DNA-directed DNA polymerase (Pseudoalteromonas xiamenensis), 296 residues
Amino acid sequence: MLAPWLEQLQQQFNHTFQQGRLHHAIMLHGLRGTGKSLLASSLSDGLLCDKPSSLVACGTCKSCLLIKAGNHPDRLDIGEANSSIGVDQIRELGEFIYHSAQQGGNKVVVIRFADSMTSSAANALLKTLEEPNANRYLILCCDDVSRLPATIASRCFKQLVVAEQSANWLCNQLNSHEIEPWQTLFLQQPFLVLDWQEEEIESNIKTLYDCANSDVTAWQLNELNSMLAKRTELVDTFCLFLTQRIKQVALAGAPFERISEQLNSVTLFVKKTKTLAGTNMLLSLAMLQQSLRQLS
Ligand SMILES: [Zn+2]
């Protein structure tokens, strides 16, 4: 069962598919954690299934069983987190698309993290996109479509995926009665919250939230340091919480110059910890704390 906002898109795609107008290259884009990858899988399953109903896979036919076993010969998956997609993988894609389907139906390629393609990979993909083949579908997923060459994006049917009205759905998934304050900041990215739950790092996120919303002079620098140094991707989350807090202070009437200075120091902190190798996290945190002191 897909989340409601994904279900709605699935139905739209089914509609165009039934009319024989489904584009050969679909680009699902939108914030991280909206479920793009799940929608891509669902569409891919529907396109490969022998007896789909409204483009939803039956789950029991031979094709579906092959999909479940992870070895359907007419499906190719490319792209993973934190690694770039090279030209060799796109050449493999070209070969895959070229040969006829082993199960006699459609062939589907799902490219996740499409915005991590190298420029030579993107060039190679362009060729494939320019020569569409019948019964061949490419489904690309990326967080930020502007990071892809315009030549690629313009040859795809672009679909923005937005998690709309996800609060109730998220509550159900989390088995809780209400959304916690920190979770309200991620209602647009509900799968991110679920990933954190699965990875059992929710308490870390909550600590970051509490810290960002507490008196900065009381920051436990060592605790923050060990958390952020171990998982630098959480720097973004911490800074999101901080920015939110600074905005609240701004709304309460704090002077503009001070607010702007503080926002700058948060931006600088992100830049330092993410782009400069070997940054001393503890020192950077101490400097951030120093510049945010007037916040509370
Ligand atoms: Zn099936």
Q: What stands out?
A: The mean pLDDT is 93. The longest helix spans residues 256-275. The longest strand covers residues 136-142. The radius of gyration is 22 Å.
